[in-house]
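Thread: quick sanity check before group meeting

JM: Hey all, I'm pulling together slides for Thursday and realized we never actually wrote out the predicted structure for the chain we discussed last week. Dropping the sequence here so it's in one place. If anyone has concerns about the input, flag it before I start.
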Amino acid sequence: MDCLHNTEGFYCHRCQPGFRGNALYGTPYDCQRIPLYSEGSSPGTTPAPAAAPAPTVRPHCYCHGHSDTCDESGRCLDCLHQTEGKHCSRCQAGYIGDARKGTAADCQLAHPDCSCHGHADFCDVFGRCLNCRHNTMGDQCEKCVLGYYGDATRSTPSDCRRCPCPLTMPSNQFSDTCTLDIDGLPTCTRCHPGYLGRDCGTCANGYWGSPRVEGQRCVRQVEQDFHQSGYLTGLRHVSDIALT
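JM (edit): ok, ran it. Output follows.
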């Protein structure tokens, strides 16, 4: 293998004698010639001691340009530039970016104007909140997610609550959305077919049931009549057998 840019080794992973730098950066300028004379001196004068070459990096030491040394297992030591991880491949908490790009500016401090109403800790470089919690969403975690209602800007973990349509358990939620109305109470906005009312707790015409009772729902009247008819037919059949 013919290594370029003043590098050598099976992986072209180190600088040739007389050159110094970090050949793992992957640029043509990784290895620079070591000057033979100190600044201000010239040939014919006493040469300055040559600078010591950079430490040799193990072939398996891959740190995305954020560290020069690894342990025997290949784990990077002393990650720089606000990076961390086995290969210095991620940004530290409080910093955002892509540490795998291999530059000193990969990880930047989270946006200083990060206003997330207490529902997220970090923002991107544009000030948009990352990983909103407490069932919130939006650039500033200012809205409740689908199926929840409330005022997410109050900045408490309980700002957004599950829509009671009419109950909060999944078996008795008959609207996917609700809003906080002007009276401070939730109003369900998309009742499923067969349900009516502010909380979708009433069966529509042609339906029968008790949607406000846990596990119950509204069913079509013809379906109910069919079940009742089958039940009565079964009773008559049992009675006929008993009389014979």
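AS: nice. The radius of gyration is 35 Å. Confidence is low (pLDDT under 50) at residues 52-59, 232-239.
JM: adding both to the slides.
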